[in-house]
Amino acid sequence: MSLKYRVVIVDDNQSLTYIVRDHLEQTSQFEVVGIAHNGEDGIELIHHEKPDLVILDIIMPQVDGLGVLEHFKDEKDIHFVVLSAIGHDLVTKRAISLGALYYMIKPFDVHVFVERIQGLILGKEQPVATKENLEHLKTLVFDEINQIGVPMHVKGYQYLVDAVILAMHDDEKSIKITKSVYPKLAEINQTTAISVERAIRNAIDLTLTRKDNFIIRQYFNNEMFNNKITNKEFIIRIANAVKNKI
Fold first, then answer.
1. Which long-range contacts does 92-95 make (Cβ < 8 Å, 24+ apart)?
2. Taking 90 as the threshold, does the pLDDT of residue 34 lie above it?
3. DSSP state of 80
4. What b-and-e string marks burial along 26-63, b requiring 16 or more CB atoms within 10 Å of the CB?
5. For 136-145, what is each residue's pLDDT tens digit?
6. Residue pair 10/39 in contact by the 8 Å Cβ criterion
7. pLDDT, tens digit, for every residue of 151-181?
8. Ordered domains of the chain (ranges, CATH)
9. What integer pLDDT is reported at residue 128 of this predicted model?
């Protein structure tokens, strides 16, 4: 192995890959030798570069992170660390069973992430799937959507929670609700993107018809038009409110 750990980053969030790259390369231990933004290109890049460490997203175009881990499950010389907005137990356990050393939930503190990776490489940390930050984040999201009265009994409630968490790790201008968030939630829940969209729409419409609509109008003062608000505006408004509380 070279003096520095050679790293490949595979994640469809382009801005995040460059942030992680810059922070890793500020250390003396890591050199980022390649970046890919989908699983298929990631597999090709890993074969070509033969890195020591791969930082991998789970939900990506073409081939997802689990597919990448499956492809390299017999490769013992490459360490995989997962960064994902998805913290479902089945996904986490599957990633670890396929050889992932570490599983960290987005959004995350990049300084803490680099310290964790250094700890793993230097043997000071044990391989683990960590979800403590996800639980704290979910609590904040639950509190926020409960405050504005989203009905808990409808299917769109949980979709809305997950959509807000997914939206939080992207820049507001780059969030693609229809092309990214809905398909990701559909894949996780084994349904269709249109079903996810409709369920979230139903939850929002029910919220807007509550008797205490004045509170809702105050909360979404800048987003509402004719007592209506789009799914994207609703999700981003909550995501921004939660970000401000972290």
1. 92/129, 92/131, 93/129, 94/66, 95/58, 95/65, 95/66, 95/69, 95/129
2. yes
3. E
4. eeebbbbbbbbbbbebbbebbeeeebbbbbbbbbbeeb
5. 677 888 888 8
6. yes
7. 888 989 989 988 888 887 666 666 778 888 8
8. 5-130 (3.40.50.2300), 133-243 (1.10.10.10)
9. 45
